[in-house]
Specification:
The chain has three domains: 36 residues, no CATH class; 149 residues, MM3350-like (Structural Genomics Hypothetical 15.5 Kd Protein In mrcA-pckA Intergenic Region, Chain A, Roll); 33 residues, no CATH class. It has eight helices and six strands, in the order ααββαβααβββααα. The longest helix has 13 residues.
Length: 263
């Protein structure tokens, strides 16, 4: 956990200070607010929950391209990643579905897209239909195409899944190619390692479970969230191997999910 920097007392400086905090510092701030240590100094800030704003995206391309991109789970060691080929005219809500299938998630939690690498707490994000129903404001993800946010090699997008466990994915555009009728179907062309199980407490929980499995799942050293070694098989996916990945299976899953066959 990061040590929190000194809190300014001037309202304008205080607002800028909060905007500059990274995620670890925001967690430290939340702890201090909960303890009452900085409440008085934060009284002049506007509601932190209403900061999302419209995102100025580039116009759609007249001729969509085939985008090759990588999606990697931040903090994963060894690295959990996929290389995907996707049509650039897919909207972000459709991309979300394909990311779920390619990574191996179950789409049972909320998600969010942010332009860039998502470092600042006040960086705007694309909203879902659920967000809008909850009163959130901003740019709807189902009205934005993938090629409006990933335009040139090196462009990045942040994809967050499950706000509790905080699975953060970094998406990077590698290359563009002409899109043809024969290349429209989504494809996974590479990757490594299995998707973490759901609801294990985030990347650190996954690392503990993966290390336990690689060590042969010793009954006398069971990690959280398991109570004992007998509980693990019911919690983990059937035959789960943290090091197993098959690009052909990921491609098949993406195409099935694109046709809503997973529902």
């Amino acid at each position: 956990m990061s040590e929190l920097r000194p809190v300014p007392t001037d309202p304008a400086a205080l607002k800028a200070w909060v905007a500059s905090l990274d995620k670890d510092e925001l967690m430290a701030l939340a702890q201090q607010v909960a303890s009452g240590a900085v409440t008085g100094r934060l009284g002049s800030l506007p509601d932190l929950g209403s900061r999302n704003r419209e995102i100025d995206v580039a116009p759609p391309l007249d001729e969509p391209s085939l985008l090759t991109l990588t999606i990697e789970l931040r903090g994963s060691k060894p690295r959990i990643w996929r290389r995907l080929s996707l049509p650039g005219d897919l909207t972000l809500d459709a991309v979300h579905t394909l990311f779920q299938a390619a990574m191996g998630w179950s789409d049972t939690h909320l998600h969010r897209f942010q332009p860039g690498i998502g470092k600042s707490y006040n960086q705007p994000y694309f909203i879902t239909e659920f967000d809008e129903d909850e009163g959130d404001e901003g740019t709807r993800e189902d009205r934005v195409r993938l090629d409006q946010v990933l335009r040139a090699p090196g462009d990045r997008l942040t994809y967050l899944y499950d706000f509790g466990d905080g699975w953060e994915h970094r998406v990077t555009l590698e290359s563009l190619a002409p899109l043809t009728p024969g290349t429209r179907e989504p494809m996974c062309t590479g990757g490594a390692r299995g998707c973490p199980p759901e609801d294990v407490g985030g990347i650190h929980g996954h690392h503990q479970i993966a290390a336990w499995l690689r060590a042969g799942a010793p009954a006398d050293d069971v990690p959280q969230p398991f109570q004992d070694a007998e509980q693990a098989p019911g919690w983990l996916p059937l035959g789960y191997d943290p090091d197993a990945f098959d690009a052909a299976e990921a491609t098949a899953a993406m195409r099935a999910w694109a046709g809503a066959e997973h529902v």
